[in-house]
Specification:
- The protein is an alpha/beta fold.
- The chain has 2 domains: 198 residues, D-Maltodextrin-Binding Protein, domain 2 (3-Layer(aba) Sandwich), CATH 3.40.190.150; 117 residues, D-Maltodextrin-Binding Protein, domain 2 (3-Layer(aba) Sandwich).
- It is built from 12 helices and 11 strands.
- Strands 1, 2, 3, 4, 5, 6, 7, 8, 9, 10 and 11 form an 11-stranded mixed sheet that branches.
- Helix 7 links the parallel strand 6 and strand 7.
- Helix 1 crosses helix 3 and helix 5 packs across helix 12.
- The longest helix is centred in the C-terminal third of the chain and has 22 residues.
- The two termini are 30 Å apart.
Length: 329
């Protein structure tokens, strides 16, 4: 478990933070009057961890309170998520959830100790990160080249994911199927950060990852993003072709980050967190910061929209999980 003090803002903050801190709603409210804990159910360095720390720093500036990001890992994200589900619903324990924690785990983990719908209050759908297939430069330079090599040597190649049954694993299984039932061995990691490091050092030939975890390495030439798993080329990386345009039909997969509180959190606190997060997420400078990291910010979310998005993702992944045989039994 890695606890990192994101920021303790003192005194008057400028720009956006100052305008948020002087909001009458915030000025009159007693919340928050102590440190806020944001749980990340995955190891440091991955896209969710990055999102939580950037948001945490902004919340700390806004509220002039300490915000602590805590990495509570294990169980494909289920351990940290269950911890928040059981936390006191007072607004001082939050979680940045993902497709894995709130759409995949409920479908793949038997006897899961939380209910993704009933145990949480969605506050804001923060952003999405399109998944991509990424190779070591010595393995392949294009997706068609990779597919040709895999077909010529079944079982020779492997791909890393952030964990068995997680969204990157499922995206990899979907890719194998859509590309013609390719024989590629799955290698699970405990989070995405170590898989990226192993890819860059040549320890593993392929990984499935969100852009936010691989952008920097790709730009340096140490790894190569072969294709985006999106319907069209993404705005912040227009040079990366999609898998669809390279001959892999219907290959769309991404993860989301959303801010959740435990069920029972007072409505006034939820609304305050929503209003504050909305102002942060609609700040153009913050949006650009996220975009540079491979995260597409969502500027028009709300508790209602976030709730519907969580339900939609559950419905989307159900047939994929059944098809891959990973459904909890």
């Amino acid at each position: 478990m890695n606890r990192i003090n994101v920021c303790f803002a003192l005194g008057v903050v400028g720009g956006l933070s100052a305008s948020l801190a002087t909001d009458p709603l915030l000025a009159q409210a007693r919340y928050p009057d102590k440190a806020i804990r944001i749980v990340v159910a995955f190891p440091p360095g991955g896209g969710t961890d990055i999102m939580a720390r950037l948001l945490g720093a902004k919340l700390a500036q806004t509220y002039a309170q300490q915000v602590v990001v805590e990495n509570k890992t294990g169980g494909g994200g289920s351990i940290g998520t269950a911890d928040v589900a059981r936390a006191k619903p007072d607004g001082y324990t939050l979680i940045v959830g993902t497709t894995s924690t709130h759409a995949i785990n409920p479908l793949t983990i038997k006897n899961l100790t939380y209910d993704a719908i009933k145990d949480f209050v969605p506050i804001y759908m923060l952003g999405t990160s399109t998944y991509a297939i990424v190779a070591h430069p010595n393995v392949a330079r294009t997706l068609p080249e990779l597919i040709k090599r895999v077909r010529a040597s079944p079982g020779k190649y492997s791909f890393g994911s952030s964990g068995t049954g997680g969204s990157t694993h499922l995206a990899g299984e979907l890719f194998k199927k859509q590309a013609g039932n390719l024989d590629i061995v799955h290698v699970p990691y405990r989070g995405s950060a170590q898989s990226v490091i192993d890819l860059a050092s040549g320890q593993i030939p392929l990984i499935i990852s969100g852009f936010s975890s691989v952008n920097t390495y790709h730009r340096s030439g140490r790894i190569r993003i072969l294709a985006a798993f999106s319907e069209k080329r993404i705005e912040y990386a227009p040079e990366i072709p999609t898998a669809i345009e390279q001959g892999v039909p219907d290959m769309v997969a991404y993860t989301y980050n959303a801010l959740f509180a435990p069920l029972g959190t007072p409505e006034a606190v939820v609304d305050q967190l929503y209003q504050t997060t909305l102002k942060i997420m609609t700040d153009p400078a913050f949006q650009k910061e996220l975009q540079d990291l491979g995260i597409e910010a969502i500027a028009d979310s709300s508790p209602r929209k976030a709730t519907q998005a969580v339900k939609d993702e559950l419905a989307k992944w159900t047939p994929v999980i059944k098809a891959t045989g990973l459904e909890a039994r």
